[in-house]
Amino acid sequence: MAGAIDLKDIFFVEAEELLSALEEGLRAIQTGAQEADTVNAVFRAVHSIKGGAGAFDLKPLVNFAHRFETVLDALRGGQLQPEPALLGALLHASDHLADMIGASRKGTETDPEQDQRIILALEAQAGMGGHKEEEAFVFEPLALDGPFAMDLSALPLTSLLRKVTVRFRPHSGAFASGHDPALLLRDLCSTDEVEVDLDETALPAPGGFDPGQSYLGWTVTLHTERSDRQILSVFDFIEGNCDLSLEAEADALPDAAAPEPAPAPAPVAAVAEPAKAPPTPVAAAKPPDPPPAVAVQTGSAAQSPSTGPRPTIRVDIDRVDRLVDILGELVIHQAMLTEAIEQSPGFGSVEVDRSLDQLRQLSRQIQESVMAIRAQPVKPLFDRMHRIVREASMAAGKSARLVTEGENTEVDKTIIERLADPLTHMIRNSVDHGLEKPSRRDEIGKPTEGVVKLSAAHRSGRIVITVQDDGAGIDRDKVRQIAIDKGLVPPNAELSPQEIDALLFLPGFSTATEVSALSGRGVGMDVVRSEIAGLGGRVAIASVRGQGTTLTISLPLTLAVLDGMVFEAAGQTLVLPVSTIIETLRPDLSMRHNLGKSDSVLDVRGRCLPLIDVGAALGFRSMLKPGEGEIVVVVERGDDGAIALMVDGIRDQRQVVIKGLEANYGQIPGIAAATVLGDGSVALILDPADLAAIGPNASRPNVFLAAE
Questions:
Q1: Region 190-208: what's the mean pLDDT?
Q2: Among candidates 75, 113, 116, 118, which has minimal Cα distance to 96?
């Protein structure tokens, strides 16, 4: 039973990959890529989903996918053209297929009436309405214990039938790969008059029977209208793991017109036999070795290792998380060991120094390797946003498309999972509040279809994700007035453009005039900011009236280990992420300029940077006077700006393990997380961008308690 559960889990994981390929292929066709390979890839994705669903008796999913692939088969056969309306219906069906797979994974089902409405709408768009035999499509078990005939005379038959003989023999590794020949035969025989003969000559003696192996073969004779390609597509899911051949001849019925020549069969697998060849005996074929329990082969077994995709393994994410936890403990104990050795009498010898250096290098290599296991491209997440744009534009009565860049940018899997909700809010906000109505865009000379651009890139040791629209931009006068009406700011307040933009992140703030399916309830950008802050990141907004708005998320690449600079301020040991540091310096008094009674700026080569006394900003002590042992660390602020942090001294640079504080202390302004140092003490990890917003005189007693 455990093996069956594992195989089902593998099916759902592979189904997600197939859904991604389906969505990507349909979008490619939508943009004009109508090559046969693209259309075939889309068809194979749905067909493979159907085959896998049939293996686990997911009947609603099988029925939907079967009718879906019928439309796709007409598209790849040239009977249908990729018109915009048809592609819209195909994308809608693709979205619903994803919903059905998600429901099946949870052990539930989607609404059967909705299933029917969506597939009927697709068939109507394809001009296939009224196909009763398709609507009644079900899989029924067949008795496969000997020669038999299946009478389907009640089905409506035309006079253009062909007689097709299919010889099929699974390899011995088919069962280990999750294939069930009975389901394939049931699919093959479901719509035609057939005769099936069982080849049991390869059965071993009773004492040598292995239930995990395949010993049987079948010869199936079909009287069918289907093309060779349609027949062979039944075996796409098992290609490379079976011997397969097909031969066809016309069936001369009394009222038959001369049939057209059958199209050439599509390639099935490199192991396919020539037409009219007898079945290959099991002993003569060398089957592929069954994969290990945790291994999943990508691509068919017939592919050359040098040209095919590399094999992968699927591992429970909990095991990887455990490995990351152990890595964190290793880094901490390596730091403790280093500190203990440095304080011992033998420290300073060449051998000890060399061994410590090798240990540090090995620890870093292990850390990079483990993080690489958890790192994944953001492409699956970005692919999901195409559906969000389609649904949001439909609900808002707008025309919009999503353009993505940097889909292969890799980031920690944990971050990817927690980015889904914030990105969904941001995308919906861009469509609902950013883009104009098509009529308005036409009036002002813009294309009626708005564009939302989603991009990802690595920058300064962080991942930066931007959501940009080409809409109307932020109406700051309107935003300011709404804030005044809600009592969020006084009427006489003088606000900069950046401060007005920041009002959009306040809880309950909304510029919508009425409640809709997308907006108006005051839930959105405040959720984005809080969730991004929970990931140790920050979100910024920039807008140009009439040109659009850009939302930028900056996040750490991982939530486990980082390179940090350890320094001191007011007797406290603190850590700054090395990726945020631009430079360190000892400034002259002439470089410092006071603004008012407490604020100061530092002139660094003609650039005035806000100067923040870290010890005072965190409430550890009062501000240092000019000239009191100042060391300045210039760090990035996250919005293409920089700030100068004044500290008491710098100790060293080292890897530190990130320990979250939210569970025990909540969100602490200026503090991203904590870590354990080599001497067992706790040090706080600073968030420079958040620290800049605190101000030099803010008192933070809760931070002091956290440090203790």
A1: 83
A2: 118
Q: Which tokens belong to 543?
A: 């807008």
**The pLDDT of residue 409:** 87
Q: Which two tokens stand for residue 130?
A: 């009224």
Residue written as tokens 């005039």? 513
Task: Convert the pLDDT of each residue in 336-358 to its tens digit.
Answer: 888 788 777 766 677 787 888 88
Distance of CA 261 to the CA centre of its chain: 45
> How does 71-109 read in b/e, with b if 16+ C-beta sit within 10 Å?
bbbebbeeebeeeeebbbbbbbbbbbbbbbbebbbeeee
Residue in 505, 437, 508, 433 with CA at minimum distance from that of residue 474: 433
What is the share, in percent, of the chain residues with pLDDT greater than 70?
A: 77
What is the chain's Cα-based Rg? 32
Structural domain for 337, as ranges: 317-376
Same domain, residue pair 541 and 497: yes
Q: Is the pLDDT of residue 90 over 80?
A: yes
In CATH, what number is assigned to the domain containing residue 350?
1.10.287
- Whether 685 is covered by a domain: the verdict is yes
Whole-number Å distance between alpha carbons of 44 and 604: 60
User: Does residue 198 sit in the same domain as residue 187?
Assistant: yes
pLDDT at 623: 74
pLDDT over threshold 90, residue 466: yes
Asked if residue 347 and residue 399 are part of one domain, the reply reads no
pLDDT of residue 444: 92
Task: Please provide the average confidence, as pLDDT, over all residues in the chain.
Answer: 76
| CATH number, domain containing residue 106 | 1.20.120.160
Rounded-to-integer distance, Cα 444 and Cα 77, Å: 43
What confidence tens digit (pLDDT) does each residue in 651-664 have?
Answer: 888 878 887 776 67
One domain for residues 473 and 486: yes
Whether 391 has a pLDDT exceeding 50, the answer reads yes
Distance CA(466)–CA(456), nearest Å, equals 7
Q: Which of 548, 573, 536 is nearest to 659 (CA)?
A: 536
Is 53 contained in some domain? Answer: yes
| Per-residue pLDDT reduced to its tens digit, 41-72 | 888 889 888 888 887 888 889 889 999 988 88
Could you give the CA distance from residue 602 to residue 443 in angstroms, rounded to a whole number?
49
User: Domain boundary residue among 135, 170, 194?
Assistant: 135
pLDDT of residue 346: 63
Using alpha carbons only, give the angle 55, 56, 62 rounded to the nearest 5 degrees: 75
Is 141 among the domain residues? no
User: Where does a domain end: 537, 556, 575?
Assistant: 556
Instruction: Please check whether residues 660 and 546 belong to one and the same domain.
Output: no
How much is the pTM? 0.59
412 and 477, same structural domain? Answer: yes
- Same domain? 409 vs 528: yes
Do 584 and 659 lie in one domain? The reply is: yes
Within a domain: 116 = yes
Spatial CB neighbours of 363, under 8 Å, sequence gap ≥ 6: 330, 331, 334, 655
Strand partners, 634: 583, 644
How many domains are there within the chain?
5
